[in-house]
Each structure stands twice: as C-alpha cells, then as structure tokens.
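Predict fold of Beta-galactosidase; 589 aa.
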Amino acid sequence: MGSIEIKKDFYINGKVVKIISGAVHYFRIVPEYWEDTLLDLIDMGCNTVETYVPWNLHEPKQGEYDFDGIKDIERFLSLAHQLGLYVILRASPYICAEWEMGGLPAWLLKYSGIRLRSDDEQYMKCLEQYFSILLPKVSQYQIHKNGSIILAQLENEYGSYGEDKEYLKKVFKLMRDYGIQVPVFTADGTWNEALEAGSLINEDVFPTGNFGSHAKENMEILEKFMQRHDIEAPLMCMEFWDGWFNRWNQEIIRRNPQEFIESVKEMLEIGSVNFYMFHGGTNFGWMNGCSARKEKDLPQITSYDYDAILTEYGAKTEKYHLMRELITGEQHRLENRRKTCSYGSVKCKNRVSLFSVIEQISTIIENSWPLTMEELDHYYGYVVYQHDFQSYTKQSRLRVIDARDRIQIYVNNKFIGVQYQEEIGDEILFETSLDNQNDLKILVENMGRVNYGAKLQADTQKKGIRTGVLIDIHFTKKWKHYCLNFNKTDAIDWSKEYIGGPAFHQFVFTIDEIPNETFIDVTNFGKGIVLVNGHHCGRFYQVGPTGSLYIPGPFLKRGENVIVIFETEGVFADEIILNDKPIYIDIHK
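Predicted 3D structure, encoded as tokens:
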C-alpha cells in the first residue's frame, strides 16, 4: 500500500516528491489514444497526470449513469497506474474547463428555484446521488489502495463564483463519506479575495493557485495566504496555462513557446506544477462551453487544441520539445506516435431537406405553449417549434420572446430570418397566405451553456423558447416540438425532397487499410454538425476560426464509411475533402 502526506512538501511513500503534472481529459480523447498521450507525458518528464470528471457526461439524465467508452474513467485510471503515473483527480461538481455548463448537468435546471454551486437543498440532494455512484468507483484507485490517485479537488475556482463555506463543508463531507481519503485541495486565482472566498480552512484541505505566468508574484500571494491561516502545505500551481481556448469568429490564440518555457523555469524553481493543458483534445458532440458577456454570450468552438503542449490530434509541438529538454535534459526530438492521413475528395451521394424527413429523426411533443429544452428533456442540439396559424392580411409580424441561443424562422418552408441573442425579440415582417393555414417553423439551436462566471445560474441557462411567440401582438397557442435526434440518421429516407434550407448531406467512401485520423474540410459549408459513422465530431461554423473538424481514426473503419453533415444555412458543396492537417480561417478576410 502507498501513502501521501502533506507537509511543507509532498511526501509520497515517505519520500519528498515535486509533482510535475500534465492535464489530460480522458473525455476529450478517444480511448484508443489514451496510452499514446500518457506515454508522451512520461517521455516529457512528468510524474503525474491530472483530469477533470464532468458530471453531465456521466449522468446525462437524472438517475441514468454512463461510464462506457470515452467515459470509462476507471479504465483511464487503471492505465495511468499501469504506466507508473500519479493521478490528480478533479471530480468536483463543477469543472469549468470550457465544457458545457462547466460540467453541471442541464437537467438540474428543471428544478424551479434551484441555486447551483451552493448548499441549496435540492442541488445538494442531486449532488449526493451522483457522488454515491461516482466516488466509490474512483476511490478504489487511491494510492493507499495500491492505486495512483494522490490528490482530489474539492471545488473548482469557487472563489471566482461564491463564498458559501457551508456548501464547501458539505461537499467535503460527501467526498469523505463516499470514500475519498487522499488529501483534498482547492484551486483558485491567486488574488486574496478569490483565495479567501474559495478556500476551506481545514487541516485536510489545502489551497493551490491557477495562473500562466509571473510565478514568483503569484506564489508569494499564495504563500502569504497560507501563512496568514497557518496552513502547512506545498506551493503548487494547479493550472499553469500554456495556451488558451477559442471562440467562434475570433482569432486563434497562440503563445510563444520560448516565452512559455521561461515562465515554466520560474515556476519549477518554486514548487509543484500541473500544466493546463498537456493534451487538449476535442469537445465532441455538443459539449463546447460558452463565455459569458453582459450583452451576449460567446460560444466556444469544437476544437480544444488550446495551443497545448500536444495538438488536438496528439502531435508534439515546439513547446513539447522545449519542455522535454528543460525537464529531462534530453535534446533529441521524439517522433509523433501516430500519423494523420489525407483521403482526398468525396462526392455527395444524397441530400434531403430537414423538413422533408423531420418526423423520421425527431421525438415529437405537443403542448399548448412552447416548452424549453429542459422541459422537453432534450438538453442539447436543436428543436424545431411548429405552429399553424390563420392570417387575415398579406403581411404579418412576429416576435420570439426570450429564446436561446440562435433561431431560424420559416413560414410555409420559406426562410424568413435568423436571430441571435442580441436580436431575439426584434419584430420580423413576412408574407402570409390568406387562403390556407400558414405553417410556422422555428429552428432553435443551443450553442453551448455558460461554463464560468455570474451567468452560471438556472434562470439564465435554459435553452429553447423560454416565454413564447407573438404573431401580430398576441401570444400563440398550440405547438409541436420536434426534438432532433441525430442517433436516428439511419432512418432518413434519402428519396425525399430537397427544398433548400436546413438539410442533411450524405457522403460515402471506402478505406482499404486500417484508418488513420484525418480532418474534414467544411469551409464550403455554412453552419452545422458532422457525423462520421454515427460518431458526433462536433460543430462547424463558416465564421471561423476553424475550417475543419478532427476525425479520430477509430471513428472510421476499413470498408465503407458514411459521413452525414447537417447544415442549417443552405450553404453547402457537392464534395468534401479529407485532409491530413487542420484548416484555419482568417477571420479578417
């Protein structure tokens, strides 16, 4: 059995250890590539791997748990142990991580009046139920049980959100009650207000800091905070940022490798460190987060490349080589463990409009008034709201009241307009038929819930139409909701009509050998998602900064492969190209 003690230093199995760690999120990398990433981490000179654990991934619907495939955290922990790595486990309720709602499950929003990340009775009841399933699974991998977990996180940057000490105490008690026995830490920005608000002054909980430069100044603040509260613990930066995340329609953020290395040298002289990120990976599916702004939110992109030490697809960067030389003294450069592949162009085989096949790929719910996505138990992606109405004039006016995030409006299958957050609620004029009932459809997209800051609350993060729809000046009643289910794309009847607008585009091609990872060029498409053999690769948007989506090799197969693109703007091409490198868009052109 192993041991870890917290004194002025970390004592692991009785010996002083400086933790040199890298962040690897198992849920952003396909399991087939986990070992490659961890071996690269070891080769760079790290002795520890750190990972978050997203609640919304493991309990996607209340009471339904998923630990299979990319969600198999036990397999990840076991692999890290086999390779000789220590593990820092950040299984806190909230993770931020530029992940959908910071990892909090959207079904929490169904509870009226719930206050997230507080000692709210309903929130704590939901959290305890989740912890009762998760923590016994992971606790068996702690160091004193011959596993690798040496540290566990209480909450994440709580000092940038709240100061509810009763909440922190209750989370800590749940962790201990359900088997977490290793030392527990908090992680906050290194200014006094954040440290005071986010810490739990307790002999079993110690503070760490998050920053990406000016290590000496930041560690001095943390050290003085610990002295002021008589805390004996090692100095550690829990998130030393080596890059940054990216948003739609903004330039890719890059950090100079040499400047980064100089900052790392300073940090390593002071204490222990976890590099955030070592390998960023991909926000597969709907899991990208969103930055909060007063006037509107700014959703983040599918790629979580982060300008990290390894690229999104696991290739070694200049930062990697410089870091390896700094930590290990080795100057020869290691090759990448995998190779990307270009599969060339693929012609479109079939194309069909969403409205022609909508009943085949939807769960249909009728209600008097429009329901939010949370009320529909359809938390991510798209909902089409449909309503029939009689018009008495050739021109009508419409307002959608309080919807999130982006809406596209169609009357009798004719495009009327598109609105994003700052425009939703503005009046739209449109032509109507006097002879027949008019068919109104509103395609609503959830582009990602806020993952950080004051907007992370139940009353701001509900998606879909949240109040209602005015035609003329009255609210309209009797709605159908088409909750689009992209697991049903095999049921699409491709012989149905293409009438423009939102549509599915099918591409079929053959691979003769074991597939390699590749990138699909989507620069000729407007906005939407890509499915590869049923795997949801994520979102694309022609505003950039990315013009491609990453396709891991395991998403492909030897033989026939099917790519389905769901595109919402009516902007598309008759062929796609599969490249061996990612594509970036100059947003200034």
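The first strand starts at residue 4 and ends at 6.
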